[in-house]
Amino acid sequence: MNSKILKLNAPYNIVYAGGRIGRHIATMTVWDDSEYGIFEASQYAMLDEGGELAAGALATEAELGDCRVVCNESDPRVGLRALAEMVKYDLEQEEPVEFAYLWERLSLLGVKVVWDKARDEKGELMKDEDGNLIDENVYEVSISFDGTHEHLLARSYVSSGFYFYARGSVDEVYKELHYQHLIYESVFDRDALLIKFETPDGWEQHIIDLLNARKEHYEAAPDEDKLF
């Protein structure tokens, strides 16, 4: 087994490497060789993940060809939906990537998330009563539900930008979704983030309405006995 490290120059690309985010500061190439030539060559990114983590950590979770460029240090911005598409596969696994880690690393690396501004039904930027643009970043997250109110599974479509997941009774699911809702909005309080929910499953619209109203606990619907 042979290896070689190629050091890169700043400004660095900030890359997503199979669950990890960092500055791509070098590339390690490993290969085997024989009298017949080089074979089984692979390349991996060496990352500076920022903060307290050591620079030069080898990201073996994904080969270089499977890494995705989040942005470059010369313009450290990324659209939330674009980032969500990058991490979609990992978040859909049995044990998904911890999203809080991603947000923490992005912040430490100086990356600014580009948000969608509030828009009306026509797609135009919303204004207040004085005609000023509303400086509120509104995100709609679609959540699907499966099961019954005794055994319910709820999860978001990852491409919406935030990952919501809960399993249990309807009370347990609601409590967990409400908690995740508050956590996300508190993390991005300075960005005036407002998350609103929708669902393609009309039979659980009641849960969605309660979440949007920020009710602390699940409240049974008038026709609760007719719901699944």
Describe this structure in words.
This protein is an alpha+beta fold and 228 residues long. Helices cover 21% and strands 34% of the residues. It contains 4 helices and 12 strands. The strands form 3 sheets. Strands 1, 2, 3, 4, 5 and 6 form a 6-stranded antiparallel β-sheet that branches. The protein has a 4-stranded mixed β-sheet with strand order 11-10-9-12. A two-stranded parallel ribbon has the order 7-8. Strand 9 and strand 10 form a beta hairpin. The longest helix has 18 residues. It is globular. The termini are far apart. The model has no long low-confidence stretch (mean pLDDT 83).
Descriptive tags:
228 residues; alpha+beta; four-stranded mixed beta sheet; 4 helices; 21% helix; globular
